[in-house]
What does this fold into?
Amino acid sequence: MIRVSICYPAGGKFDEDYYLNKHMPMIAEKAGPALLRWEADKGLSGAVPGQPAPFVMMGYLYFNSLPEFMQAFAPHAAAIIGDVPNYTDQSPQLQIYEIVKG
It folds into this structure.
C-alpha cells in the first residue's frame, strides 16, 4: 500500500473549508475506487510547544500501489492541480511513501 502525502506550508492563505469539503472530495470522485481512503491533518504546533506548525494542513491519499495511483491521478492531474489556487497561495509539497508497517 502507498500513501501520497501533500503538505501545505504555513504562512499564506489556506481555506480549510474549501479543502476539506470541495478539493479532497473532488479528488476522491475523480480517483474512483482506486482511492482507498483519504485523510487530512491540521497543523497545531511545531516540535516545541508554542512554536508555529511548519505546515498548516497535510492531506493523505491511500492506494494499493504506485501504478494504481498514477493511473487514477494522471488523467485528472490538470483539474486537481488547477483547483489548488481556490484554497491556497502556497505551493504544496508532495511525497509518496510505501507503507511498510501499519
The chain has one domain: 2-98. The beta strands are 2-9, 37-42, 55-63, 93-98. The longest strand covers residues 55-63. The longest helix spans residues 16-31.
